[in-house]
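Internal QA ticket QA-208
Title: Verify multi-chain structure generation after dependency bump
Assignee: T.L.

Test input:
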Amino acid sequence: MLYFSITKKLILFIFCLILGLLALPNFVNNDALPSFLPKNTLNLGLDLKGGSYLLLEVDTETIKKEKSEILLDDIRSVLRKNRIKYTGLKITKSGVRVSIIDEEQINTAKNLINSINQVNPNNFLTQNVSELNIESSGSTFDISFTNDALRSKYRSAVNQSIEIVRRRIDGLGVTEPSIQRQGNNRILLEVPGLDDPARLKDLLGQTAKLNFRMVDTSISISDALRGKIPPRSEILYDKDAIPWLVNKKILVSGERLADAQAGFDQMTNTPVVNFRFDVTGGKSFARATSDNVGKPFAIILDNQVISAPTIRQPILGGSGQIEGGFTVESANDLAVLLRAGALPAPLNILEERTIGPGLGADSINSGTIATIIGMILVLIFIFISYGRFGIYANIALSLNLIFIIGILSLLQATLTLPGIAGIVLTIGMAVDANVIIFERIREEYDSGKTPFSAVEAGYNRALRTILDANITTLIASLILIFLGTGPVKGFAVTLSIGVITSFFTAFLITRVIIANWLVKRKPGELPI
Amino acid sequence: MKSIRWIKKDLKVNFLNIKNIATIISIVALITSIFFIFFKNLNFGIDFKGGTLIEIKKDRDLTISSIRSQLSDLGLGDIQIQTFGSADVVLIRIENSSDLISNADMNSINTIKTNLESKIEIQRTEIVGPKVSSELVQKGLIAIIVAIILMLFYIWIRFEWQFSIGAIIALIHDIIITIGIFSFFQIEFNLSIIAALLTIIGYSMNDTVVVYDRIRENLRKYKSLEIYQLINQSLNETMSRTVLTSFTTLLALFSLYFLGGEVLKGFTLAMIIGVFIGTYSSIFIASQIILYLNVKRDWSKN
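Actual output:
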């Protein structure tokens, strides 16, 4: 076990060199390195470089409710068209309920409702799968969505949300945001370098459903507030809590927007949002404005009136301007929201963590100092304890630290603050393999073996112990990798890498160095 | 170059001599820990309880009591304010108000900002909704249980079942007492403590395995040696390693505790406690159990 061929030593050396080069970009200026060398540095986590972490959940209840409303409309229209008398049509917890008045029409009604089921194939995959569960007891029908149908609706809503979140974040102009789907209906968002999440949350907190509706001037707003609301109108408020009576009917919806840009009004020089409809939207807008010259209409975002200008002349070009008392920033944000489009459902924030860049830098500093001091203390102690052998173990230990940094850079695994703790802990524990070996060598030497055979026996006997002992640590840290989140996962990653590299350095590197020394010097006694 | 042997060459300590005292100490510690965990509970951080945490750096002339009085008027609910590391860094904790992260939670940050403006700098905000916090509790528990089961299984494969039982008892002993200490001192229990507990599991196991490995080796080597003496001898032979490894690990941990910054303190403290208890349990508890469980002596028969 102590003779290594030149080839083996060479391979080992090259291997160490590669790992060393992988770690190198972290210590020198990247530009100073020749182009063929790796350039990846450690990938710092949000807790070290600062930034925001948000866990969002797509509000599936809203989606279910909206789909139920559409279903209710479908049922109503199909029943009316066929002159079937019904009562108690309403949305229930799981879908829609309706009762048929005339018993003779029950069968016809059943067929009609069944037909809704079949005209709704979302795509070719769900074509033959029925979307609805229809249960009837007597004259009452309970129509609900199948689990498969709901799941596919949720899935597409989450995908759509991710896309829209991405577009909104891109509008913020931050670098390298990461947006991932998590589980069934969650979105994990990481935005490095953002230390004020308020604006981000503002952007994500809005569904951004924009529509244009006429203001109802048939009665005064004070009458409406007293409860005399016309059936086709509703009261909405603007941001100053001023009530407006507006039609429920939508003239043009935000889906028809082709573009939106922040700008300044040419006359007043105040921030505005300029928008342009697509062809269909432009036509509807032209028709609506031509029919209603002189009347006010409302621009409504998420059920809040942004502004209610009066139509001075028909707007035929398909483009217009929103004035809403904006600041430059809020005009910009609204333009981003409108360009990105509306979310299919509101996003709920489940978890938010933001670290300021200052704190992150402090953490890096204290982490680095703790690592260096911890390392020096261990190096000194090992040197005192094992003398010459201690130096060899210390070489291995130092290489171990470099290897961990190299592998982390290679894998681009995220280094978090607990990750640094993992490295420091590894330094303390990595010595273990060498300690087990050296103690064993001492024992063998004490029992009267020659230096050479004591070292050989020491390594042989220690191998199994070290394997058994390291595998237990590895099991614990692998569990953490799979079950942990965020920073804790970072800890598990560095610990796992550390366990593996420490085994490698203790078992190959110190052994080669010690063997070299033994073969060259042929010492009469072991300095251990 | 001279080397120093911290533990003398032919150590002959009768470790098992004090096994009854160790047993009593451990049982008392376990009962006290369980008592505290149940009756004093754990000081759960927002990871597990949900809520809002804000870390601010404040001007010297802004006192904690003035922050408290300014914030208590805002109706944000139960607020805890304490310094964190230095006198200028303050942690503000606000209890969760509803199911989701509500606007109130969001607004509390804004309110604090506008109220204390110019005198503070917000360094960190964490908001954990109850949905996430209950999931984190669940995940943490699962991680620990899975870890224990896998350890049990691993030892069972590599050793005999007696060893596996000894190791698991030692492991559960270590975890309960560590959690008990956290409960006694009401140290904040958060996600990183779960990571620490898992590392303690790994470390304690590591220590136990090294001792067990030697016991197993000696069982084959000294077929007629009495088990009591055999275990004692194995403990003596591995003592130097046990002390050295624990010491280097503690060197690293103490460096981390004093220099690694405030955020890691809880984690490091848990690890330091764990290293002490883990080392103690592998010497006095895990090995003792082997004594009672009648391990196989004659390895010629299978």
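Spot checks passed. The domain at 51-128 of chain B is CATH 3.30.70.3400 (Alpha-Beta Plaits).
Status: verified.
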